[in-house]
Amino acid sequence: MAEHERPKQSVINDLPSAPDSDQEAYSPERHDVTFNANPNPQMFVIQNDAPLSSGNATGDEESGRAVTLLGDEAYPEGGREAWLVVFGSWCGLVAALGLLNTLGTFQTYLLTHQLSDYNEGTVGWIFSLYTALCFFCGIYIGPLFDKYGPRWLIGPGSIAVVASIMITSICTAYWHFILAFGVLGGIGTSLLFTPSIAAVGHFFRARRGFASGIASTGGGVGGVIFPLMLQILFVRLGWGWSIRILGFLCLGLLVVANLLLKKRLQAPKNVSAHPDFRILGEKPFLLLTIGIFLLEFGLFIPLTYISSYALANGFDEAYAFQLLPILNGASVIGRALPGWWADRIGPFNSNMISIGITIFACYVVWLPFGKTIPGITIFAILFGFSTGNNISITPVCVSRLCDIQQYGRYYATCYTIVSVACLIGIPIAGSIVSASGGEYWPLIVFTGLTQVLSLIAIYAAKVASIGWNPFTIF
């Protein structure tokens, strides 16, 4: 299109005005920030610490400082091709995030069967390694997506995930699970996760929150279906064939994802496939990364330990396993509806409201009433709803701080840092429970604290971007 051929200016303050067609396509009502009659052009950019010189026409590839314009490209915002990409992303995320949301079922079963001789913290390393690799491998997967698209990523990822599940079905020793599920499964899921999230952004801007939310409901749907299916199959078929049936289900979903996922926008000239941590020098992006780090640190603790918590507090085994599907069922709603709402109030605002609900769920519901059936059930619903929004909207928050053609790089850099939280969060949680003599209240306090600090950091990122007004749409 003609607007894609127009060279971008390297001096931020000299940005040309958009043509009339662009002004119609991107009216103030559809932007992420509310404007007065004389909008300030600085609201469209994330400022660097130092201005770019006029000679750096290729932006961050040569200067080392990313020009994070929010982009003036035209987006389909719908249509058959765009929604087929969303459906392909949904199928990929049912498999990828569905497994991620089933970790609690895996851990609870292994602790009472194959790995009953190990404590919770030790078994937790299997799943923390898996979770960490899901995000850490994005350090290259994001830039590779920007440069080459999803085809050469989701194919190998699909093979790795299905192979991981099939091999896990015959594992018996601790190190078997570490290698088959933790390492191979984590790398494979990473190859699926990043392209599935990033591809949606190539087709939507004004409706990106809603479209990303719809796609990410796949993780919640998988998180409902997989645990309930395994709970039934474990009794009837045992571990081996239960896990293999799960593998065949993922195989079918990933075939669809491979056929439908694609990118639309061309990579910027001279774009590198290598990661660049210098973009952490942008203050809003750095603060957002810290906020997401703390958010994910606490998010996987209830996902992994809610069933173990229920068993430790006298709930029967059937109900303990059903808590995770309840949580993930609420997560489906939390991924879709707040995504639609985020397009109206802004993804940062939507994210912060959801974190506030998470804090309420931890300190007002789980801590005082978690040993009762109504209390733990209400907590699972609130936590699932709020964190479902966080999972679907945090990538949209990242996209607000960069040009969409650099989104894979920003997303991967952020979640590479976040992977450290995923690596240490679950084992630390297990150690807290062990050090407390099996009591879970210190773990609940710790989980809530991570969310309080996350809320502060994400609000600081918003302040660094657009100012102190908490009611500004962003």
List the helices and strands and how they pair.
Layout: H1 2-5, H2 20-25, H3 60-63, H4 80-100, H5 103-112, H6 120-136, H7 138-148, H8 151-168, H9 174-200, H10 208-260, H11 283-312, H12 317-345, H13 347-369, H14 373-399, H15 407-435, H16 441-466
Helix pairs in contact: 4-9, 4-10, 5-6, 5-11, 6-9, 6-15, 7-9, 7-15, 8-9, 8-10, 10-12, 10-14, 11-12, 11-14, 11-15, 11-16, 12-13, 12-14, 13-14, 13-16
Note down, in words, how this protein is organized.
By secondary structure, this protein is mostly helical. It has 16 helices and no strands. The protein has helices spanning 2-5, 20-25, 60-63, 80-100, 103-112, 120-136, 138-148, 151-168, 174-200, 208-260, 283-312, 317-345, 347-369, 373-399, 407-435, 441-466. α5 runs parallel beside α11 (283-312), α8 packs across α10 and α12 packs antiparallel against α13.
In short:
The chain has helices at 2-5, 20-25, 60-63, 80-100, 103-112, 120-136, 138-148, 151-168, 174-200, 208-260, 283-312, 317-345, 347-369, 373-399, 407-435, 441-466. It has 474 residues and is mostly helical. The longest helix is centred in the middle third of the chain and has 53 residues, at 208-260.
What are the defining features of this structure?
474 residues; mainly alpha; 16 helices; 71% helix
In DSSP terms, counting alpha (H) and pi (I) runs of 4 or more, how many helices?
Answer: 16
Query: What is the end-to-end distance?
Result: 28 Å
Alpha carbon gyration radius = 22 Å
Helix/strand-derived category reads mainly alpha
Regions with little confidence, pLDDT below 50 for 5+ residues: 1-71
Helix content, binned percent: over 70%
Report the count of strand segments: 0
